[in-house]
Amino acid sequence: MKPLIGVKNNIIPREKHEFKIAYHCFVPLTMSNEKVVNHFILFCLNTGLLIKYDERNKTFHYEKLPICPALNDFKSYSFVYLFDFIFLFGGYNSKYEKVKNVYKYSMKEKTWSEFKFTLPMEISNSFAILSDDDTNVHIIGGWNAKHEIQKMHVSMNIEPLFEKEELLKMAKKHELKKEMNRMKLERPYIIPFEKERMIEDEKENKVEIEIPKKWKEMETQIQTFENKLKELDEEKRTEPNKMNWDDIWSIDGEFQQTKTNDLIQMNEIPSTIRTLVLYQLSLKDDVNITSKDFEEIIKKQKSIRHEINEKSLEKVKLKKQADGAILNYTKCIEQYNHLCSIEREILIRKQQKKQQIIAINEIQYFNNKVMERFNELNDKLQKLIEENNNWIEKEWSELEKKWSTWNSQEISIFIGHTLKCKKSKINQIHEIIKKNKIDRKSLSKLSENGLMSIFNFEMLSQACNICDSFNEICKKYPISVTDSDKDAAEQVIPKEYLCPLSNSIMNDPVIALNGITYDRSSIMNQYKSIPNSSSLFIGENLRLFSDYGLKQNIQNFLKNSK
């Protein structure tokens, strides 16, 4: 007899309770009434665990199991397990209250149920055992409600513990077992127990799959992007033509704030799209790897099925022969069982891979959907900014055209917009104009010193700016604009403004599916020169995403260089 050997010190992750784990239920996990190697179930108080032991690495893995609400505070119950079910009898709680109830736990469904019938008395610390033929449960001894030792023996038939369908499956197993015992007595050899083949039914075979942490993190991040999209979609916007004039023409008004927020969001979108593009590349690789594994499993499954069918036919043929062929028949059953075990493992792996493929495809679809929506939002914000810029330029042009008929508000707009005043300042200017009854004629007669005196400007340059701007409008002189491409070229151009293909400043920057930004015209004409250019396509389409934030930065750079 081999002595016990210490494997590894390990702490069970139990739930918080005033009692420690003791007087608990501890049984092996079974599937189709067969023990699963190195898998165990533990129930005690408010702790339920599936314990898996990795014999190769000598490590334990734990999975939380649901606790019966009625037994959340109970232990010291007797128990038996049979046909993938656990039965608990009696027990007591932290207040030392004993019960006589009977409970049932399904290992397959991971669900609890309570029977209507009970034990003859409240009992704890009793002992339960099955009869040899698994037809009766014997409950022996224990402590009663008065904490007195009981010389009790209760025998219970198992039929009330199972549903009719469950009993039929058990009866079939029992008949096979009886037949095996009979053959053992009649013949000097043992016929192995014939395994049931695993049915490829996803509802019947609820296989546990572990979604990789990377996929979960991707899905969580994509969901964060989705939530951000919802917030942006639900954000209320005020149309420019519905804003107050001071909100439009002041640099801190609602119009300018909306524009600033739109620019901030637009500048953040390329980073989000790049992240989603990287997810797309990663998910695409994962789909290919998992699909390849899935195809290999299907090939193995077909091969094993073919072998099983052959062995099954051979088994039936040998079984009809005389007793002299039984030894060969026995070997065939052993081979058949071995193949069934392999098939079972393959089916489980196949279902896992199939569900993983479904999970990957769902995340990939979700990623594409969110990525497209961000691209649509990007285009929408760019369009809004362009429309608002065009609108404000048009309004300013109309204001300049009618300078000869300006009222006090329009003069306030001219001064506030020219000096880029805040909302409070532009309103202050308006009050001064009304108070001093300044019109177009009096404005044209005011000198720089007069403007300084009336409007309390901090610098003379502000008054000069007003005079110069007003004179230009009066004389209808257009603002001089010169081409500064040469000057810009002489400056140090940021690397991110240059197209990797043409090495020139980008006019229309776009993000490709490899995460790199190109000029649209360059990549449309030269994409074949890019390594692994097929990865830039979705179907037959070269997929590109506009980077309006970068485009705006380039335009500002060129404008400031003039």
From TrEMBL:
Domain U-box, residue spans: 492-523
Top-level lineage group: Eukaryota
Taxonomic lineage: Eukaryota, Sar, Rhizaria, Retaria, Foraminifera
One biological process term in Gene Ontology: protein ubiquitination
SMART domains linked to this entry: Ubox
Keyword Coiled coil: yes
The name this protein goes by in its record: Viral A-type inclusion protein
Molecular function as annotated in GO: ubiquitin-protein transferase activity
Coiled coil location: 367-394
Keywords, ordered alphabetically: Coiled coil
Matching SUPFAM superfamilies: Kelch motif, RING/U-box
InterPro entries the record matches: Kelch-typ_b-propeller (IPR015915), SAM/pointed_sf (IPR013761), Ubox_domain (IPR003613), Znf_RING/FYVE/PHD (IPR013083)
Record-linked Pfam families: U-box
Organism of provenance: Reticulomyxa filosa
